[in-house]
Request: fold
Amino acid sequence: MTILSPNTTNKVANNITELIGNTDLLRINSLSNLTGCEILLKCEQQNPGGSIKDRAALQLVKDAIESGYLKPGMTIVEGTAGNTGIGLALVAKALGFNMLAVMPKGQALYDAQLFLVDACPFADPKHFYHTAKQLGEQRGDYWWADQFENTSNCKAHYLNTGPEIWQQTQGHIDALVSVVGTGGTIAGNSRYLSEQNPQLQTWLVDPHGSGIYHYLKTGQYQANGSSFTEGIGIMRSVENFRQAKINKAISLPDQDLVTISRELSQLDGILLGSSSALNVAGALYAAAKMGPGKTIVTFCCDLAERSYDKLYNPEFLKEKKITVDHETLASMFERYQAEPANVVITVR
Reply:
């Protein structure tokens, strides 16, 4: 395997936030050899909180401090059910702040104060997002991070992740592939990289059942199925996502990300979580449609262990009628090549 690293220093970090970023870029040999493309994986699970969301968490807090909204002794509050909460808890502790995570009951988050609410639809004012917003607005000693609308999220990737990718690929990148949660990752990276290479194609990959693919196709958010992927596939327009420069969009079934996860584990020794597996399946799809000779970059968003209860749970997959040994990478690639062109949305 070829591992490209942005820089190597002997510096001793002063606190854990200084370990965020500068992650490795890894060639996925099985996919690269199969497709004739260079398919590269940005290893964001290397961040100290185990996910790409550490980057956004740090930028959100840094900008709030610099703007004067977040002062010593205050509490950071955010509605979260996943990786952003972990990143914010990590950054808060390192920089001397308190952290309050508003989460649905049944979730857990290390070393942060929890405010647990009943799971409910987003339209319900008791939803964890709205609850966090209310707490942040009503209490003067709270600062609401607002990861969906606060564009410090995408700024983290415009200032850091995108430049890292550009340096690591030595300016040779033809396509960027990404799922969407808040939209910060795809927005910041697509904006920076398309400024460096106007011919860059940014591919959005969405799980079946999410509303983003449908929105890009029709202009309306509408769910049309069910996917077990978590933390991606927003069902509303948010400011970070509106910053993205998207060229193509596809929607893939859960079966494909299960196949990818097992094949890469066996062939490359790479363990992927659900969103990361969907990213890699999207990169394979982009290679099938773009043809050989391209350099395609995507993200390993977080640690695979965070997907064990679904992606790597045989009983759960059996309930969903998903087969682990469904097909090989070669047959999957051939299927992608044969799919009608109108399956891919071209975003104007």
